[in-house]
Design a protein that fits this description.
The complex is a heterodimer of chains A (about 425) and B (about 450). Chain A has about 425 residues and is mainly beta. Chain A has 4 helices and 29 strands. In chain A, strand 3 and strand 4 form a beta hairpin. By secondary structure, chain B is mostly beta strands. Chain B is about 5% helix and about 30% strand. The chains are: A mainly beta (about 425), B mainly beta (about 450).
């Protein structure tokens, strides 16, 4: 099966490249103010004829503009028990010129999808190019991006296909977000959501608060801000300060569903039951592999799992875990063994009651626990304070203990290590 | 590549602003269908419901008096302080007792026969329950006789208790301004395992003993107010869904406060995700989230996904204005039909009538949208990114959004629950429509 898939992938890719199956009207079109060469990266300086930057400032450059270019297509990942899994996903094609996006974007699906990190106040242009499903040339699925939890959203950029538009193969749709609220969000494709999300079109997305950019020495209600200090939210008192941050996205795959998709069989929606629990697209022990995993051979060298969940800090540091859950079948509980969890944010908002007058802060609703429970589409911000924690290895794991497995392999699955030096 | 140009307003803004000046400030809508109290007469009996995949599921439910059995049972709408009396007549098949529990209330019973949890109506008999609706809020009621089976079979419903001093023109969910709202909707969430219903219909409940269906529960239909999507979005009381009278189609205008009353009536936890904006959870299980009497909802918190737990209710306030979007939601200034002003005389930053966020007024639409041939269109797509605008679409596209509202999916984010058996989309899903000022609703 593996050999077969590999050849099929090669053949399908060659066919797509040679045969020019891209519809004639369609075009890859990047929209990114200040980007002069279509690679979705704003250029601070004008470009020389050879493409290199000159020393003349680009008048259209605006540091408040951020851009990204995602491909939407298919690919493979490696599961922690060694098997490879077919998936749909987003790939990062930022930095690739428009005319090469199709060839670079095919089979570039990553799991989780490329992490999106923004700053409060950014104007974010997100280009989404549908590169088609190489392994499923029978499918003509459009795709979208749904920024899950975006406050005061418009319909057109919400990514719900029923309520707006979705992008067909070979074309680009540009989403625009004025990022006015910090927090831990997530994103996913909303087309045939049960299918495209089970298949892996899910990723981390978070926004850092404006409080990070305060001038050094600013007094935050008794807490003195210094350059380089980071916070989860605009807390006004330094209570969400952290030293290191890790996005942790809960997910799980149903291998029978993925196999049915790969072999063009009817999809078992009714029987869906996940058997590969994961954090950031990997089961333990792959979760603690630093950097990227070696891609499965079906992927022809394209790296598809770049997000490690190994959590490292020095004793005394505060660790911010940006926990989100985008699995499609059930609730999961994540527990921390030995390090208390302080929950400071929930669903991309500071966990605090409303201000009674618009000025006085509301009541703190922070709480300390050793486990958090999230359904699909929920997010939590947890601070692990290691001040009183002995150096060593600690575990972050699901207490739904039957999900500490990778399919038939016992002791793996939804778990990672916290290493305190 | 030809890019879609933005022009041709079909609902001129001048007209809609004029209309909204006429319509604004009218009384709020109490849109939850139900029956008024304080005395109720229910009959427990059998029937069938329809699912959008063409299925027909056998169920047991409560009927209002000798009316049609329904799923969920009739929603009781009572006032705080009411002495509520519910008389239950048992017409269930298979010679079994029937009963009702009212979680959150202190109940006394009359008539009937003693059961394990409460007094029950014997086959063909009756029992009467009485309780005082001491607290405002959203509550559930359900069978207390073999609830592991009878609740699954459909014997459940909701109770709305209006606060003391309730004024339908300025409604509140609780006696505090933090609980005021303009629109209110019930989202009673439940699910069914069709294997179990099929077996009970043809073999009777005793046949369950040779299965593991009750312990190995595996639902495949998911409901809001007793309907699976897309039936959730049909009108209430449509004649082809006689046993499922309640719809779930939230609608509001910018600047309004929409009260969600979410009731976890089934067995599973559901992450109910409402697109469009955060909501503020102000109450759980009929109690305002307050630190003391009169403090208001000072312990409330904001979410984009509500955790709906079995047996619990959540009240949340949802608002939407499009504030800070970074572009003018009523049109592009380059558009010849762009003719609206943002008039903020009260200084809150919003237009006094349309709730347009004036800081974004006149800001151009930030991107060019692809050509029609590069796009797939949704049924609720108006053809325009602007609120209250319509644009030409290819034949057969769009059409479900005649006033150019902004439309957001509200659904279980356990996305597996967005199917009807093996067919996507469906299940626990509906759409919120934010209608432009001046457009009619309902």
């Amino acid at each position: 099966m593996k050999q077969l898939s590999r050849y099929a992938a090669l053949l399908a890719m060659a066919f797509l490249l040679l045969g020019g199956s891209v519809p004639a009207i369609a075009q890859i079109l990047v929209q990114c103010p200040g980007d002069l060469n279509g690679d979705s990266i704003p250029d601070p300086f004008l470009l020389l004829p050879n493409g290199n930057p000159s020393n003349k400032p680009n008048p259209e450059y605006d540091p408040g503009v951020k851009c990204m270019h995602l491909s939407a297509g298919d690919g493979y990942i490696s599961m922690a028990d060694g098997r490879s899994m077919y998936m749909f996903g987003f790939g990062d094609v930022t930095g690739i010129p428009e005319d090469r996006v199709m060839e670079e974007g095919m089979m570039s699906a990553a799991f989780p999808a490329p992490t999106i990190v923004l700053d409060e106040g950014d104007r974010f242009y997100l280009n989404l190019t549908n590169v088609g499903m190489v392994m499923r040339p029978d499918l003509f699925d459009p795709h979208t991006v749904h920024w899950h939890g975006f406050p005061q959203a418009s319909s057109v950029f919400d990514g719900v296909p029923d309520a707006s538009i979705s992008i067909n193969m070979g074309s680009t749709l540009t989403y625009f977000y004025h990022v006015v609220e910090p927090g831990t969000y997530m994103y996913h494709c909303h087309v045939e959501a049960t299918e495209h999300m089970q298949m892996g079109m899910l990723g981390n997305l978070y926004v850092r608060p404006a409080q990070n950019r305060l001038p050094a020495g600013q007094d935050l209600n008794g807490f003195i801000h210094q350059a380089g200090y980071k916070y989860a939210y605009n807390d006004g008192d330094g209570s969400t300060y952290y030293d290191v941050e890790y996005p942790i996205q809960i997910g799980s795959f149903d291998s029978a569903f993925h196999d049915a998709s790969e072999s063009v069989q009817p999809l078992p929606f009714a029987l869906m039951r996940d058997d590969y629990p994961m954090l950031n697209g990997r089961g333990y022990p792959d979760t603690i592999v630093p950097g990227s995993l070696t891609p499965p051979m079906e992927n022809m060298g394209r790296v598809s799992q770049t997000v490690s969940s190994l959590i490292e800090a020095s004793q005394g540091q505060k660790i911010l875990l940006r926990v989100s859950n985008l699995n499609v079948t059930r609730f999961y509980t994540l527990a921390s063994l030995g390090i208390p969890m302080k929950v400071v944010g929930y669903n991309a908002r500071l966990l605090r009651g409303p201000s009674p007058d618009g000025i006085t802060p509301g009541k703190d609703l922070y709480y300390t626990t050793h486990s958090v429970t999230l359904g699909g589409g929920e997010a939590l911000d947890v601070i692990l304070d290691t001040a009183d924690v002995e150096p060593g290895t600690y575990f972050l794991y699901t207490t739904n203990l039957n999900y500490l497995s990778n399919d038939d392999d016992p002791f793996g699955g939804m778990m990672t290590e916290i290493r305190i030096q | 590549m030809r890019l879609r140009s933005i022009h041709a307003a079909k609902l001129p803004m001048v007209l809609s602003v004029a209309l909204c000046l006429i319509l604004w400030g009218g009384p709020a809508w109490a849109m939850i269908d139900g029956i008024p109290g304080p005395s109720f007469s229910l009959t427990a009996t059998e029937g069938h419901i329809s699912t959008p995949d063409g299925g027909s599921v056998y169920f047991w439910g409560y009927a209002d008096g000798d009316g049609l059995v329904q799923y969920p049972g009739p929603t009781f709408i009572v006032n705080q302080g009411d002495e509520v009396t519910v008389t239950l007549t048992n017409q269930l098949p298979y010679d079994q007792n029937a009963s009702i529990l009212f979680p959150g209330h202190v109940v006394s019973t009359q008539g009937g026969t003693p059961g394990l949890i409460t007094d029950e109506a014997p086959p063909g008999g009756t029992v009467t329950y009485t309780f005082t609706a001491t607290h405002a809020g959203t509550y559930l009621y359900h069978s207390g006789t073999h609830p592991e089976l009878q609740v699954e079979m459909g014997l459940l419903g909701a109770i709305i208790v209006r606060p003391a001093g309730y004024n339908a023109s300025y409604p509140r969910a609780y006696q505090h301004p933090d609980a005021r709202y303009d629109q209110e909707y019930l989202f009673l969430l439940s699910e069914m395992d069709p294997r179990l219903h099929l077996l009970v219909e043809f073999m009777g409940p005793d046949a369950l003993e040779s299965t593991n269906y009750l312990t190995d529960y595996f639902p495949n239909y998911w409901f809001i107010n007793g309907r699976c999507a897309p039936d959730t979005m049909l009108m209430p009381g449509v004649e082809w869904l006689p046993t499922q009278p309640y719809d779930s189609m939230p609608m509001m205008r910018p600047g309004e406060r929409l009260l969600l009353r979410i009731a976890g009536a089934g067995r599973d936890v559901h992450p109910f995700h409402h697109h469009g904006n955060h909501s503020r959870v102000i109450a759980r299980n009929g109690r305002l989230l307050q630190s003391g009497p009169g403090t208001g909802a000072d312990l409330s918190y904001e979410v984009f996904t509500v955790q709906s737990v079995p047996g619990e209710t959540v009240d949340a306030i949802f608002e939407w204005t499009g504030q800070g979007m970074g572009w003018d939601i009523y049109g592009d200034p380059a558009d010849p039909d762009y003719a609206h002003m943002c008039m903020d005389t009260n200084g809150d930053g919003f237009d006094d009538n349309t709730y347009e966020w004036c800081a974004d007024h006149g800001k151009p639409f930030p991107v060019l949208l692809p050509h029609d041939l590069d796009l797939t269109f949704g049924g609720f797509w108006s053809g325009s990114p602007f609120l209250g605008r319509l644009e030409a679409l290819p034949p057969g596209e769009g059409g479900l959004n005649p006033y150019g509202g902004f439309v957001y999916m509200w659904h279980s984010h356990t996305e597996k629950e967005m199917v009807n058996y093996d067919i996507f989309p469906g299940g626990m899903m509906t759409m919120l429509i934010i209608e432009p000022p001046g457009a009619p609703m309902h």
